[in-house]
Amino acid sequence: MSDSIEPGETAAVSARSARVFIEGIALWGPRLPGWDAARSILRGEAKPCDAPARRPAPALLAPTERRRAPDTVAVALEVASAACASAGREPRGLASVFASTFGDTAVSDYLCRQLASAPLDTSPTKFHNSVHNAAAGYWAIATGCPEPYTALSAYRHTFGAGLALACTHAIADESAVLYVAYDIETPGPLATMSPSRGALGAAFVLAPDRSPHAKARLEFRVQPGEARATPARAANAALVEGNAMGSCLVVFETLADTLPADAAAPAPHPPRREIVLTLAPRLALRLAIGQAS
Amino acid sequence: MRAQPLCAQPLCVTAYTVACAAGAGLAAFARALRERRSGLRPNDFTAAPLETWIGRIEGLERDAAALPAGLAAWECRNNRLAWLALLQDDFRERVAAARERYGADRVAIVVGTSTSSIGATEEAYRRLQPDGQFPPDLRRPILHEPHSLADFLQHALALEGFCITVATACSSSAKVFAHAERLLRLGLADAALVGGADTLCGSVLFGFNSLGLLSPEPCRPFDPARRGISLGEAAGFALLERAGDGPWLLGCGESSDAHHMSSPHPEGRGARLAIEAALGTAGVEGRDVDYVNLHGTASQKNDEIEGRLVAELFADDASASSTKGWTGHALGAAGIVEAVVALNAIETGLAPGTLNSSAIDPACGPQVRLENRECDVRIAVSHSFGFGGSNCVLVFGRERPR
Questions:
Q1: Who is most buried in A116, A241, B121, B131, counting CB within 10 A?
Q2: Is B52 in contact with B231 (CB distance < 8 Å)?
Q3: Which of B122, B322, B342, B93 is nearest to B221 (CA)?
Q4: What ipTM does the predicted assembly reach?
């Protein structure tokens, strides 16, 4: 690409595109329990689980912590761990970007109810779990990772905005970055305003250079003007329907089409040349996903 | 952590503004700092009595503070405060000029908040309809999620670029400088509006109360007899460009404590990493720093740990202080408010002292000062350390480094 960016080149003005390598891939949804299963399901080669799980049980946490962990933390830590394992990277060496549309809506619902009835009895644990960076903070604590994390939201554009920021971080800092995106089921009256169903977590380890761990190449281009996201195929979209982070699915579907479990298997769906995510109402992120080599 | 941090691209802070309990607009805030007038008052915000002091913005509830009709969909306390800040110091005009210069899609918005407009959600729960629905006037989904602030700004300023809300608790509106710097360094934007806004709400007042961290008196940062924090509300913004007139962002350092959700690491491990990374990316040494705006919340642990670190990492003749005695702890907006104090120090030579405190904790070195000082500030640093162990340190300088 003529206008792609080289790390360390500070004079690059008006560059709108860049490239990273995906080293680790992770996905967890009630009917998509992990990337290996999801890859076959999204290709249409396997049936989705007919007994959906409510939430994952991340092995990173001790059993007591695992039971007590809020849903946000359970789903975020599950995919974060799986992405690092898939990349063959130690979690403690990776900076991270955590993205969630609504954050911990179960805690928000609790806090708002409590404040409306007995504010002085607010639970301190629930309060410190209410910060948008709670899942990121627990990840840093559980892995002993001193590298920086961030936690962000961009409403309907959260998955794309977080992905773009994570890619930017990897290129600018010349280091691999963990990207984690998740949303949970919104309970209570808040669900009428911030609706989200089930739990969904997605994660990548993104690296600026091609390493032996590279699984896919991701080229991105930022394009101004009306932004319309590429929809996932209907059967796949239905698997995460209603979750606020469901817009991530088209990326995983394209990865599944590009990276079959069995390299000799013919692709039931030819991989798309390009997919579009939104970054803002009038800013699109165009992604071209290909094999790493 | 990498041994040699990458050098950040220096960025010019071509405009900045603030609205906090100590004053709306740079001139009013600088005057309050100079005259040592605190913006704190006894809590009159919560319906249930709560004995603490707060930095509340006067008149934000009045009709005069309402958003213009075209922005009524975003109406809430937090966006009102953001709007109040945009109206100061010709900031809106400066952003409009950047939009003209670069194009609406080339001006990014990266802003921080801790609770955004959750005050509106709290109100909806207090006024739930008999059928469990939100009251009709609050059935506006954009208010009941974290991105309310950045979405409001994008509409209010007619921008069409990157638009991201960062929510890492008390480091939020400091980390936005680091995120924006990367976007500009890679050429994905030509200018960035950074900063943030956080307003008082039940969640934070009763939440910090539940942790036993609220002071029953005006907060006294670094005082050996300090009794906890005073919460405040504030908004502030800065415009970052690759060139221009103004002080410079020289470096940013970020780290994680990886220790505890609501307590700092006992030796300040993460804070030290962030300070060292910030100085490293800026290419300056601790001894080059003239003024340090400290996180200084007046909580027992933070001040002791931060005081020790400052004694070790900065020169004895540097000035360091917490300005939370003026503003209260503005949480997600603390980073930008204190970045503004550091920028003002560079531009006017005012290194504020520490308000309300009558002595300095013996854990501190000579850097932490009670009295204001007028001095030549060429390099200023601002510390932000947050819940979840998220740390960010910013380095500003008067001149662009060669």
A1: B121
A2: yes
A3: B322
A4: 0.97
Q: Give phi and psi for B258, each to the nearest 5.
A: 50, 45
- Residue B4 pLDDT > 50, yes or no? no
Answer yes or no: is pLDDT of B302 > 70. yes
| pLDDT confidence band for B6 (50 / 70 / 90) | low
Does B130 reach chain A within 8 Å, measured CB to CB?
no
Q: Does B281 touch chain A (CB under 8 A)?
A: no
- Rounded CA-CA distance A249/A237 in Å is 7
Mean pLDDT computed over B216-222: 98
**Which of B147, B161, B207 has its CB closest to that of A130?**
B207
pLDDT higher than threshold 50 for residue A1: no
Which residues lie below 8 Å from residue A93, measured CB to CB, with a gap of 6+?
A145, A147, A176
Q: What is the pLDDT of residue B271?
A: 97
Check: CB of residue B201 under 8 Å from CB of residue B122.
Answer: yes
B4 interface with A at CB cutoff 8 Å: no
**For residue B123, what are the CA distances in angstroms to A124, A154, B53, B68?**
21, 23, 22, 22
Average pLDDT score over chain B: 96
Q: State whether A137 and B160 contact (CB < 8 Å).
A: no
Given pLDDT bands bounded at 50, 70 and 90, which one contains residue A261?
A: confident
Contacts of A65 (CB under 8 A, 6+ apart): none
- Check residue A15 and give its pLDDT: 66
Contacts of B208 in chain A (CB under 8 A): 127
pLDDT for A5 equals 42
Tokens read off for A76: 């975020």
| The predicted structure's pLDDT at residue A179 | 98
pLDDT digits (tens, 9 = 90+) for B10-29: 999 999 999 999 999 999 99
Which residues of chain A from 248 to 267 reach within 8 Å of chain B, CB to CB?
Answer: none
**Range 168-207 of A in CB contact (< 8 A) with B:** 168-169, 171-175, 189-190, 192-194
Determine the residue of chain A that is closest to B143 in CA distance: A193
- In this complex, which of A101, A115, A134 lies closest to B206 when CB atoms are compared? A115
What the block records as the tokens of A261 is 């479990």
Residues in B touching A154 (Cβ below 8 Å): 147, 150, 163-165
List of domains in chain B? 11-397 (3.40.47.10)
- Residue A7: the pLDDT is 41
Give the nearest chain B residue to A94 (CA atoms): B1
Annotation says B170 is catalytic: yes
Asked if A154's CB is within 8 angstroms of B150's CB, the reply is yes
Instruction: Provide the CATH topology of domain A17-291.
Output: Peroxisomal Thiolase; Chain A, domain 1 (3.40.47)
Query: Cα separation of B170 and A259, whole Å?
Result: 41
Give the pLDDT of residue B17: 98
Yes or no, beta carbons of B163 and A157 under 8 Å apart: yes
The answer to whether residues A166 and A127 touch, using CB atoms and an 8 Å cutoff, is no
Q: Which of B125, B179, B388 sits opposite A136 (nearest CB)?
A: B388
Task: Give yes or no for a contact between B232 and B219, defined as CB atoms under 8 angstroms apart.
Answer: no
Cα gap B105→B160, rounded to integer Å: 4
Residue B386: Cβ-neighbour burial (10 angstroms; 0-12, 13-18, 19+) = buried
Asked if B52 reaches chain A (Cβ–Cβ under 8 Å), the answer is no
- Residue A260's pLDDT is what? 85
Is-contact A48 A31, C-beta < 8 A? yes
CB-nearest partner of A194 from B141, B168, B388: B141
Q: Which amino acid, B238? A: A
Q: pTM of the entire structure?
A: 0.97
